[in-house]
Amino acid sequence: MNGRKRHLLVDTQGLVIKAKVHPADVHDKEGAKLLLGPLAGKLPRMAKVWVDSAYQGLKKWTKDVLGWDLEVVKHWWTGLRWVWVPEGQEPPALDIPAGFQVLPRRWVVERTFGWLGRNQRLSKDYEALPQTEEAFIYLSMIRLMLRRLANSS
What we know:
Elements: E1 4-10, E2 16-23, H1 28-36, E3 48-51, H2 59-66, E4 69-72, H3 106-117, H4 120-123, H5 130-152
Parallel strand pairs: 3-4
Antiparallel strand pairs: 1-2
């Protein structure tokens, strides 16, 4: 396999519920269906999923198949790239925030990817099979949760 993509479904604390690893030539929407499809009817308390713009267009599928509300977290600059202005008129002043901007709920899964990257076997694509990498993702999360449980008692 020349490249791969990782798709994660995490809870609000960033702990992995489901992971899917597949070749990089599969589009993100199809990868999301591979990840979420087998979960139909298995997570009855799940109500809302936050995703980035790569998964745009899955709202209807998610509602029909899984019964979940899908919200696409968009960047602040979405829709501000190109503005048509008639000749002789000044372009509108855009309220562009300065510096780094945290996107709502997006940081949760990004933090999880950071946690996974701390494990040597997950820092790069060492595994030959995607199933092996998925297993190491689950092992990494088990290790993280056990450490947290040990520290809380």
